[in-house]
Amino acid sequence: MRSFTFISAIALTFAGFVSAAPVAAGASVETRNVVVESVPVIVNKATAALQPLMDELYAIPVGEFVLEKVSPITGQITDVLNVALASANKLADSPADVVLATAEGPLATVGEVAGLVATLLNLVLGGLLKFLGQGLEKDVADVLCAVLTLVGHLLTVILGLVGGLLGALLPLVGGLLGSLSGLGLGNLISL
Predict the structure, then answer these.
(1) How many angstroms separate the Cα of 97 from the Cα of each of 9, 103, 152, 155, 161?
(2) Does residue 44 or residue 29 have the better pLDDT?
(3) 150-164: per-residue pLDDT in tens?
(4) Which of 1, 29, 40, 111 is most buried, by the most CB atoms less than 10 A from its CB?
């Protein structure tokens, strides 16, 4: 039953797939005097910062997955996700040429953004799913739920920024959706 909270957090994370209302890719708005990073830059930075942290978290054996070992790492993961979420929120009402800008110059396609987001989701969620049903202590499950909730918020914001992203992303996260189905959460897949 301890994993119920954990499962609920995963459900909240994937609720972003259901509730996101994407902005049309060609929407034009007045440019603000705020320095913003594009979705590809935000996701790439977050993924690069999260990789070593997730590797460190995954290296902890399940039997040693206790708050004293998990909390410092998840605190850093939370910091990275909060920075990404704040950056993504700054893009609200921005035109597509800002939202989809890349460091290389040309705009990213929706498919390219889907690939970046899928990599981030597989990195974070894919690893955390391995701990489900492992008899986690409540305090550890709560910490992991906080991470999953942040991922869900970030996903929801990004889906709202990039029109057509949901359709491009779903096929790329099929493995995660299959895992959710195996946990009895198949209703999240029937979008």
Answers:
(1) 33, 12, 25, 20, 12
(2) 44
(3) 998 999 999 999 999
(4) 40
